[in-house]
Amino acid sequence: MGKTAPHCLLLLLYLSGLVRCSAAFLFWTAMVEIGYLNNNNETVDKYCECGVFGRNSPVEKASGIVTLPLGDPKGCGPDPIYNRNFSSPPWIALVKRGNCTFSEKISAAKRQGAAGVVVYNVDGSGNSTTHMAHSDASDIVAIMIGNTKGMELVRLVKNGTDVQMLIEPGSPHGPWMDTYWLYFLSIAFFIVTAASIAYFVFISANRLYSLSVHRRSEKRLKLEAKKAIKRLQVRTLKREDEETTSDSHMCAVCIESYKPGEVVTVLTCDHIFHKTCIEPWLLERRTCPMCKCDILKALGVEEETKESGSGNSSPDVTVITVAGGETLYEVPLTDPMSPDPQRQQHRYDNTAFEGDSQAMRG
Ligand SMILES: [Zn+2]
Ligand SMILES: [Zn+2]
Fold it and tell me: How far apart are CA 218 and CA 210, in angstroms?
């Protein structure tokens, strides 16, 4: 997870940066509804999402009778240019783009009491609109519509038709709201999340697996060590034994000298230790504390366990040879698990070797 955290952070930073920079490009479309009576005295209602709110316009409703400037259709100049004012019923100024800034056109209409301003695009621009900026005329609803739509309205109004217009907020648009971007971002988010989860699951499974393998091998080694320990020679020390008479002999595990009557274990390397001291040590480490001799290898337990896994050979027939000085003597191994009491010849109180050791010294 250590590696995925910076990736997630980067993605978050990227997303927040994207949202922040796209806020500047965010724009609202405007729903434009017009209604009028045609030549046959029939009510005509038209409705389209064809306007774009100006960058500085409040995004809210506005309605009124569509009104054109008296002279210049572009509605520029400081003088009153509409034949309506504050006392007229609500009206909406319809002006053409060009000649002066958007702010000037919008301010001129606002000064005369317009409820909103609709700017239509220049000739030949079809239905295209721009996101107009009008920072000096910000507290009036101002939208832009395409030239085609604008000219249609101009013709109607010039024919003397009273066109009622209702402007309503449409929907927000921006690079991050684009379908493509939404698609891309959701896929990217999904991929990053899925990758993080997969990575986490993989790491956890891997860890669990190696832990169980380690536990299993530890368990197996302990079992093998137990087996090997049972095969080691055990002696009860006597008063006349060299180990009890000389101070140079001591158990390397507890650092104490041997006393008569104590039970010692003789490892395959001939090093001797208290039986109670060396057994827990061997269970954990399986090597002689003095010479690091591996008792599993020395007794051939490892190979045998592997073989017995498939072959079921019984360990009670194994005979090991323990080398002591120049004398070689064979120790028949017994299987403590065997129900035969003769085979249960116990090492914990093993007097069978005493004769041998005496003979060795003899
Ligand atoms: Zn000891
Ligand atoms: Zn040793």
Answer: 12
Residue 316 CA to ligand 1 center (angstroms) comes to 29
> What is the 9 CA–ligand 1 centroid distance (Å)?
59
Ligand that comes closest to the CA of residue 271: 2
Instruction: Looking at the CA of 263, name the nearest ligand.
Output: 1
CA separation, residue 334 to residues 231, 253, 256, 344 (Å): 8, 27, 30, 6
Distance 278 CA to ligand 1 centre (A): 7
Distance CA 119, CA 97 (A): 6
Q: Are 243 and 263 in contact (CB under 8 A)?
A: no
Interval 132-158: pLDDT, tens: 989 888 889 999 999 999 999 999 999
CA of 229 to the centre of ligand 1 (A): 16
Identify whether 298 is part of a domain. yes
Ligand 2 centroid from CA 352, angstroms: 22
**Rounded to 5 degrees, what are φ and ψ at 209?**
-65, -50
Same domain for 254 and 166? Answer: no
Could you say which ligand is closest to the alpha carbon of residue 291? 2
* CB within 8 Å of 280: residues ≥ 6 apart: none
Number of domains in the chain: 2
Q: How far is the CA of 258 from the centre of ligand 1 (A)?
A: 8
Answer whether residue 265 shows pLDDT above 90.
Answer: yes
Specify which of 15-19, 72-76, 212-216 reaches the highest per-range mean pLDDT. Answer: 212-216
Percent of the chain with pLDDT over 70: 75
Instruction: Give residues with Cβ within 8 angstroms of 232, minimum separation 6.
Output: 265, 266, 267, 268, 295, 347
- The structure's pTM equals 0.47
57 and 127: one domain? yes
- Give residues whose Cβ lies within 5 Å of ion ligand 2: 269, 271, 288, 290-291, 293
Per-residue pLDDT at 277: 94
Cα of 287 vs centre of ligand 2, distance in Å, is: 8
Round the average pLDDT of the chain to a whole number and report it.
80
- Higher pLDDT pick, 282 / 324: 282
Boundary of a domain, candidates 132, 150, 173 = 173
